[in-house]
From TrEMBL:
Protein name listed in UniProt: NADPH-dependent oxidoreductase
MF terms in GO: oxidoreductase activity
InterPro entries, per the entry: Flavoprotein-like_sf, FMN_Rdtase-like_dom
Taxonomic superkingdom: Bacteria
Ranges where the NADPH-dependent FMN reductase-like domain occurs: 7-150
Length: 199
């Protein structure tokens, strides 16, 4: 079982990132369940905007796309910006959208049978709205969602505390992160054993 986390912080490495931290906590939970994980900070790569699997001119999306196709579980980790997923997250969804027209030999989208989950951080309310936006996009593309497919942390409104600056992980966040991992792995195993029927 393989999982890929696409971290959609606006900051490239090595800048500390709350989205990266929450992603790392999810992948640790997945690894406890025997899943092989890989994390990619999208801002470290030249992902061009536009429609197409490969836009040429140094576009690095094809490399990331191959990682998505090799994974059983895809985690999207995003901060909240002005009540929305980050622009990097939106870019990832737009590039993933091309997968809806790529099918296997039975006519199913290539991402059918893959499980998606979301991690959201911010210093204001909005995690449910952001996860709903990302969920809908991923489901439209063909990913499946397990129960409790999101973990999140948001600070108080009008405050500047970042998740990465907390002294310890809140128990509620740790519990939710664990549930996300357990449910995502369970669903991924079920779909591996019993794929969706051909359209």
């Amino acid at each position: 079982m393989r999982a890929l986390s696409l971290v959609c912080t606006l900051n490239s490495s090595p800048t500390p990132s709350s989205s990266q931290l929450l992603s790392d906590q999810v992948t640790r939970e997945l690894e406890k369940l025997g899943v092989t994980t890989e994390t990619v900070r999208v801002a470290d790569h030249n992902v061009l905007s536009g429609m197409g699997i490969d836009l040429g001119d140094g576009d690095e999306w094809p490399t990331l796309r191959e990682k998505v196709l090799q994974a059983d579980i895809l985690l999207i980790a995003t901060p909240i910006w002005l009540g929305h997923p980050s622009s990097v997250c939106q870019l990832v969804l737009e590039r993933l959208n091309m997968e809806s027209s790529e099918t296997d030999d039975q006519g199913r989208p290539l991402v059918y049978g893959k499980v998606a989950a979301v991690a959201v951080v911010g210093n204001e309310d909005g995690a449910h709205k952001v996860s709903a936006d990302v969920f809908q996009g991923l489901n439209d593309i063909g990913f499946s969602l397990a129960p409790n497919a999101v973990t999140y942390w948001v600070g108080e409104a009008q405050h500047g505390t970042d998740y990465k600056d907390l002294e310890e992980t809140p128990e509620e966040v740790a519990d939710t992160t664990h549930s996300l991992a357990v449910n995502a792995v369970h669903l991924a195993k079920l779909l591996n054993d019993s794929p969706y029927p051909a359209g």
